[in-house]
Write a structure and sequence with these properties.
The complex is a heterotrimer of chains A (293), B (328) and C (624).
Chain A (H helix, E strand, L loop, with lengths): L2 H17 L1 H23 L30 H36 L2 H16 L2 H12 L6 H9 L3 H16 L2 H8 L4 H38 L9 H11 L9 H29 L8
Helix pairs in contact in A: 2-3, 2-11, 3-4, 3-6, 3-7, 3-9, 4-7, 7-9, 9-10, 9-11, 10-11
Chain B lengths: L1 H26 L5 H13 L3 H12 L7 H13 L5 E2 L4 E2 H36 L4 H15 L2 H15 L19 H38 L2 H8 L4 H31 L1 H7 L4 H11 L2 H29 L7
Antiparallel strand pairs in B: 1-2
Chain C lengths: L1 H23 L8 H10 L5 H8 L2 E6 L19 H4 L4 E4 L4 E4 L2 E7 L2 E6 L13 H14 L6 E8 L2 E6 L5 H6 L9 H4 L3 H19 L6 H21 L1 H4 L9 E6 L3 E6 L13 E6 L3 H9 L5 E2 L5 H10 L3 E16 L4 H4 L1 H10 L2 H8 L4 E2 L12 H4 L2 H6 L7 H10 L3 E3 L2 E3 L7 E7 L3 H17 L2 E7 L4 H6 L5 E8 L6 H10 L1 H6 L7 E3 L2 E3 L1 H11 L4 H18 L2 E14 L4 E2 L17 H9 L4 E2 L3
Parallel strand pairs in C: 1-10, 16-17, 16-18
Antiparallel strand pairs in C: 2-3, 4-5, 5-7, 6-7, 8-9, 9-10, 11-21, 12-18, 12-21, 13-21, 14-15, 19-20, 22-23
The chains are: A mainly alpha (293), B mainly alpha (328), C alpha+beta (624).
Chain lengths: 293, 328, 624
């Protein structure tokens, strides 16, 4: 890419994000968590030694989020757990969007039998209930010692299909538009038509979907931790939530309330950041939706 | 007509591939189907697991030597006869389990869908019309936050608040054992009370997404040319709002309504397990946990049938109500 | 406009769905005296006097059972939590006092391998039929035919209507024979009569095949295929028969019979013909589905359940007691301990020095605090005798000989350094230069184990080992453990279920469940003050001498204690206890004192306690 196209890209896609209130807040929230995941662990030390006498301490300067059932600082755990949560979530959403886009564009472009076959494949993944299927798949691969990328792929397999269906519909409708016909008449190569015309129109759409996938990927990743697909990681938010809810019974004790609260708060806030960003993007690139601000 | 035949062939292909895929997946799942049963026998009967496992194996009559292909053949031929298989853990046919559990799931899901759809449409339209006001801000912010809460967390919170702390709702079950199923007021009242928890846990996240979708659609429709035209024609605002905007904004949602019901069949597992509600989701969770492969395959198949049927109906209904879409 | 249409549609759908659900979700209609009897008062509107009446004499518990309910004790899942209420063993055994409480048997004589059981003459089934030796013989045939268990019974004969003679293969089965709920009364002859002959035939064949197998003989093909054919046919017939579906009731000899079952609740009615009926003050038992521990916590707080035994963190218990002051707790030994078990297929753990060092590193009480705070502490030993049974079985003399594993990092370091291990930086290295690194597996659904594992991992990592934790997913425990697909794990160590005796525990460790998963070399000889001994041989010898030579049995037990403590096939962390919570005075009163020995009957069938307390008239509706 040339420098010029980069500046164009910035003006077309990045700059508006800072102008829209929703996307700005969403970006700030997400950046905060990304920061937490990247440099947080080196700034905040982690002391996992349990201290049963100091369990369930209320939030204080020493323990910003209080301590948990084991008497371990919750804030430290959230920071150290964010890396696993965010890397898996982002990776899985990215892969889902990648697969969904490729399959969707391919379907939109291919006619005849090939298109029909892709249709059937998309539909198969749509009709199989995803979470139970993921559970079974994870049980099958459980003893294979998977790395993050492989786990993310397992998650992404069950997330891409709705996106592919939507994109194929979009491509089909774009395809009939005049300027694509014009490129065809001008005898431009297929590759060029695909990427320059169609993908350009789809970029905001894909962008929105990427952020929206965060919700699904996050829920799946939390669910997977319950099942032990990956090596057990005590600071993973899913595990912390499981501890708080089921092992420590934090709901059933008044002094344990903050334990559950801060874990849920972080999970919800991260997803909320994603939702805000996606709403913002939608308003920017689809001005009809825009509210008066 | 040609379209319908094409469509049927297409969905049939999807069905066969999906069900075969599920069959292979489920049957490759590691884990011993007899183990779950053995644990309960050992605890109940005061014996060592080893011995209980042997009893469990002979109770379930598992034949480990049967090849996958033979089992697949059996499963498919049973499926043709409308028989979804046999549950080793429950010692009964999958059809029996479904006939006892599916009504409850349908009951809760249809209640939840209707409630969330009606309220969601209303709130979404309201938000779109009151653009830029506090009302819009509240509706969209609250909906977005609800969307950010994973549904199972919401379910746990609802259970805790309404059933444990406030004790307004019963803890689990579909109706109390000492009330005979009948058309008596008491039974119907109790049945609703028991369904309320899982219903809310299903409906609230749905409501949020309907609201946001409706708000988006309404705003979009309001910009369409025919609305401008209607305004120019001098029609009253309320007429425009109801007849033109709302109806046109709702149409695309109706199509997703049917599909949504199909998906909920599969996604209801966690909610029903948390509320201990005896629908198919509950059995789904149990089947995974105890490795009841027969039950698992049967329930998957049921859900796939449900989603495919919903998709088919949605396509059809949509083509009927939206004059712009014609069956090709 | 549109909204109105939706509302109308909603009403229609609601109506249709409720009709649908009402018909489909209900029980199959059953006709029987109990139905009409109990149907009446419940049609009254709830509230006021009738509500109190209804609850009089009702005990509410939590349990699990298969639904759709087939009521077939031989089918998968059986009759669930109703088991001990519906079926009776010959006797109950109270571990704390060593006393047998006669149930279906009045008395029994043991003569070598022959056990003669004299049945009580006033036992009757809930349909009024008398219970006789025919029913016992029939039941033994059925369970041998369908469960392929217990082949320890070589023959069973009815000497007269109230005398049954068993011929056993091994006297160590005596305890199970007397106390197992499945041996005496599962298949009443007057209900299962049509299948008696077939069952007898299959049982006979099964025994023959089994004995041939044990003796290492070839089994003829035609015998095998004949057995398979007949056994499968019988199983199919019995599954199809399921009396609860066919007859609409379950004739049982026990004090309560299931009469109505839904997925979430089960109602049991008292057996009018039970020998304790006249003393009962409680005539109805309601089970709530035990779907999860949290669910049971909630039911205990709200008083919806009168008694249950979920594991509960300390803070939750404190909270519950303030929310519901009626709630009382008693803790009894579960007759098992939770232990750190090693996979001896891994060379790392073959070194006893490493195991000893680990035993010194672990602060077991800290593990107990986070895991199950009520559990019994194991103190300094790892001898394989349950803590609550220590005084009874471990001689003072033996105790002197044992290594004390105090939590002592310096001691652990010394052992390792002496054995050639080295510490570089924060990590310990084996003599071969590899770091001391392994994963600790733990079964996810067992909350308390996960908590214990987390603490153990933490302590070992602090010491300088590299330990990671892995959760075994639900349903996978057996496969992972039996397949040896782990390094170290949290598991049941000694467990005295069945026959509460050191033999049971040591059999587990050296020739049973635990040795199968750890592959501890039990057949090797280990040096002891008594010379070179193999624990495997010792358990076999103990089994033989149990009743013949008590002095020798005592001695063997001391030797096994020594080997277990010094060679650490497992490191026990704490003795598991069952915390029993009960609502005293809310609906029910008359619970026995906390120190009452009857509570020790809880492991492996807590319903026996409730049954006993109801049958003796102790539990009664609370006076308000």
């Amino acid at each position: 890419m040339t420098k010029e196209s980069l500046t164009n890209f910035y003006h077309d896609y990045i700059h508006p994000l800072f102008r829209n209130k929703k996307s700005l807040i969403g970006l700030i929230i997400l950046l905060m968590y990304i920061l937490m995941a990247t440099v947080g662990a080196s700034v905040v030390p982690l002391n996992m030694n349990s201290n049963f006498a100091e369990r369930y301490q209320k939030p204080s300067l020493k323990h910003p989020f209080g301590t948990d059932y084991f008497g371990v600082d919750i804030f430290q755990q959230i920071v150290h757990g964010s890396r696993a949560v965010i890397s898996l979530t982002l990776l899985a959403s990215f892969l889902a969007v990648l697969i969904g886009t490729i399959v969707g564009v391919a379907r939109g472009y291919l006619e005849g039998i090939a298109g029909k076959i892709i249709d059937v494949i998309i539909m198969v993944f749509l009709v199989i209930p995803s979470f139970p299927a993921l559970l079974i798949l994870s049980a099958i691969f459980m003893d294979k010692d998977l790395n993050v990328l492989q786990i993310a792929l397992l998650v992404a397999i069950w997330l891409w299909a709705p996106l592919a269906k939507q994109i194929s519909a979009q491509v089909l409708s774009i395809k009939t538009r005049d300027f694509i016909e014009a490129s065809k008449i001008l005898n431009m190569p297929l590759r060029y038509i695909l990427f320059n015309d169609i993908v350009k129109l789809l970029i905001p759409y894909i962008f929105i979907n990427f952020v929206m996938q965060i919700k699904g990927a996050m829920e799946f990743s939390v669910g997977l931790m319950f099942l032990g697909l990956a090596k057990f990681d005590p600071t993973h938010w899913g595990i912390m939530l499981n501890y708080a809810l089921y092992q420590a019974g934090a709901l059933y004790t008044t002094q344990g309330f903050h334990y559950l609260f801060f874990v849920i708060l972080n999970i919800v806030l991260l997803i909320y950041g994603g939702i805000l960003l996606s709403q913002g993007i939608e308003e920017i690139f689809n001005p009809r939706v825009r509210g008066n601000e | 007509m040609n379209y319908v035949i094409n469509r049927v062939i297409y969905l049939l292909a999807v069905f066969v591939i999906a069900v075969s895929g599920i069959f292979v997946l489920v049957n490759n799942m590691p884990g011993d189907p007899a183990y779950g049963l053995a644990v309960s026998i050992a605890q109940q009967r005061n014996m060592q697991i080893e011995q209980a496992l042997e009893i469990a194996r002979s109770m379930m009559g598992i034949d480990p030597d049967e090849s996958l292909l033979t089992r697949y053949g059996k499963f498919m031929s049973n499926l043709l006869k409308g028989n979804l298989g046999y549950s080793a853990f429950y010692n009964t046919s999958v059809n029996d389990i479904i006939s006892k559990s599916l009504p409850w799931t349908i009951f809760v899901i249809s209640l939840a869908t209707l409630l969330s759809f009606v309220v969601g449409i209303f709130l979404g339209a309201l938000a779109a019309q009151k653009r830029g006001t506090v009302i819009e801000w509240i509706i969209s912010t609250v909906s977005s936050i609800i969307q950010a809460i994973p549904p199972f967390i919401l379910a746990v919170l609802i259970l805790f608040v309404f059933s444990v702390t406030l004790r307004l709702l019963p803890l689990g079950g579909a109706y109390p054992v000492d009330v005979e199923p009948s058309f008596s007021f008491e039974f119907i009242y109790k049945m609703f009370l028991h369904a309320l928890g899982p219903m809310l846990a299903t409906a609230i996240p749905q409501m949020a997404s309907w609201t946001l979708a409706m708000r988006g659609n309404t705003s979009q429709v309001m910009e369409e040319d025919f609305i401008r035209f209607a305004e120019i024609r001098g029609l009253r605002d309320s007429v425009i709002a109801k007849k033109y905007i709302r109806n046109n904004a709702v149409l695309p949602l109706v199509a997703s309504l049917a599909i949504g019901v199909g998906y909920m069949l599969g996604g209801h597992t966690l909610v029903e397990s948390i509320f201990n509600y005896p629908g198919i989701g509950f059995y789904f969770g149990k089947a995974i946990a105890v490795r009841d492969f027969g039950l698992l395959t049967g329930l998957f198949t049921l859900i796939v049938i449900g989603v495919i049927a919903a998709t088919f109906i949605a396509d059809f209904v949509y083509s009927l109500i939206d004059p712009r879409v014609k069956l090709k | 406009m549109l909204l109105k249409k939706w509302v109308a549609l909603l009403m229609v759908v609601l109506f249709m769905v409720s009709v649908f659900a009402g018909c489909g979700g209900g029980q199959p209609k059953q006709e029987g005296p109990q139905q009409t009897e109990q149907g009446k008062p419940e049609e009254d509107k709830p509230g006021g006097a009738s509500q109190d009446n209804k609850q009089a004499g009702e005990l509410r518990l939590a349990a699990d059972w298969p639904y759709p309910f087939h009521g077939n004790p031989f089918g998968a899942g059986g009759i669930g939590g109703a088991w001990w209420f519906a079926y009776e063993p010959f006797a109950y055994y109270i571990p704390k006092t060593g006393e047998y409480i006669p149930r279906l048997a009045e008395s029994w004589d043991v003569d070598g391998n022959k056990v003669t059981v004299h049945l009580r003459k006033d036992a009757k089934f809930s349909d009024g039929e008398p219970f006789t030796s025919k029913d016992v013989v029939n039941t033994v045939n059925f369970i041998q035919a369908i469960w392929q268990w217990p082949y320890e019974i070589e023959a069973v004969e009815a000497a007269d209507d109230y005398t049954v003679v068993f011929t056993l293969r091994s006297t160590s089965f005596l305890h199970t024979l007397l106390t197992d709920g499945g041996i005496a009364s599962l298949a009443p002859a007057h209900v299962y009569g049509d299948f008696s002959e077939a069952a007898k035939e299959v049982a006979e064949l099964g025994r023959q095949i089994y004995y041939k197998q044990v003796e290492g003989q070839e089994i003829p093909e035609d015998m095998k295929s004949e057995y398979d054919e007949k056994a499968n046919k019988l199983r199919e017939q019995i599954n199809a028969f399921a009396p609860f579906n066919k007859l609409g009731k379950l004739p049982v000899v026990g004090a309560f019979a299931p009469v109505k079952v839904t997925q979430s609740e089960m109602a049991l009615e008292a057996n009018k013909y039970h020998w304790t009926y006249s003393q009962m003050k409680i005539h109805r038992v309601i089970f709530k589905k035990w779907s999860s521990n949290e669910f049971v916590w909630a039911s205990l707080i709200s008083g919806e359940v009168d008694a249950a035994h979920p594991s509960m963190p300390k803070d939750v218990v404190d909270q519950l007691s303030t929310l519901n002051p009626n709630l009382k707790i008693v803790t009894v030994s579960d007759l098992s301990d939770i232990a750190l078990v090693f996979n001896f297929r891994r060379p790392l753990f073959k070194d006893v020095n490493l195991r000893k060092a680990i035993a010194h590193i672990l602060e077991k009480d800290k593990v107990r605090d986070v895991s199950v705070w009520q559990a019994n502490s194991y103190g300094e030993y790892a001898h394989g005798i349950l803590k609550s049974m220590e005084e009874q079985w471990v001689e003072q003399d033996t105790l002197q000989k044992l290594t004390k594993y105090t939590a002592d990092v310096a001691a652990a370091e010394k052992i390792l350094l002496d054995a050639g291990y080295k510490k570089q930086g924060n990590t310990w290295y084996q003599p071969n230069g590899q770091p001391v690194a392994f994963t600790l597996s733990v079964y996810g659904p067992h909350n308390d184990w996960v908590l214990a594992a987390r603490e153990v991992v933490q302590q070992l990592n602090n010491f300088g080992f590299k330990v990671e934790m892995q959760i075994i997913p639900e349903g996978m425990r057996d496969q992972v453990m039996r397949g040896g697909d782990y390094d170290a794990a949290i598991e049941f160590g000694s467990a005295w279920w069945g026959f509460p005796h050191p033999l049971t525990g040591y059999q587990r460790l050296y020739n049973g469940d635990v040795s199968k998963i750890t592959e501890f070399p039990a057949k090797e000889k280990y040096s002891t003050p008594w010379g070179e001994l193999s624990p495997y041989d010792l358990t076999l010898e103990l089994q033989e001498n149990l009743r013949n030579d008590e002095a020798r049995a005592k001695e063997i037990i001391q030797q096994l204690i020594y080997i277990t403590n010094e060679y650490l096939p497992v490191i026990p962390l704490y003795e598991k206890v069952l915390p029993i919570y009960y609502n005293d005075g809310h609906r029910i009163e008359g619970w026995p004192a906390v120190e009452d020995a009857v509570w020790s009957l809880a492991p492996g069938g807590i319903e026996r306690i409730y049954n006993l307390l109801i049958g003796t008239g102790k539990l009664a509706p609370a006076a308000k």
